[in-house]
Amino acid sequence: MTTPTETVVAGQQAESKTFPPLTRTDFVKYQGASGDFHPLHHDDTFARETGFPSVFSVGMLQAGMLASYVTDWLGVENLRRFKIRFADKVWPGDELTCSAVVVDTYEAEDGRRARVELVCARQNGVKALVGDAEFLID
């Protein structure tokens, strides 16, 4: 449910959301949708031969999860900027928790905006993605 944007204030936190454990099938389904078929994301033998313990997620999969989480909160129609940085790999079985907090509100040329800090963390607390977004809140 989208939060009415006129009630958005600095310090406000969205209710965090934890996604079910990711599977290799999730990785492959995302690869099919994105067209990125690098074997590091679906071929265990290749991943191990390359020095990784297993396949790992394409980072844009969790970026999409984080984007849908925050736009469910403040409305995709209000999104003006979305920026992320990949911080750690995501492995099969990882449960990701997304969180967001409004760090600032300010006047912009197109109206009042909120700047929101974003985190997508693995079940061990390690941040897989960090970022920020801006939303129109007028």
Question: Could you provide a short overview of the structure?
Answer:
This protein is an alpha+beta fold and 138 residues long. It has helices at 24-34, 44-49, 59-74; strands spanning 17-18, 79-86, 97-108, 111-121, 127-136.
Describe this structure in words.
24% of the residues lie in helices and 31% in strands. A five-stranded antiparallel β-sheet has the order 1-3-4-5-2, covered by helices on one side. The chain starts with 16 loop residues before the first strand and ends with a strand. It has helices at residues 24-34, 44-49, 59-74, and strands spanning 17-18, 79-86, 97-108, 111-121, 127-136. The chain is α+β, with helices and mostly antiparallel strands and 138 residues long. A hairpin with a 5-residue loop joins strand 4 and strand 5 (127-136).
List keywords for this structure.
alpha+beta; 138 residues; 5-stranded antiparallel β-sheet; 31% strand
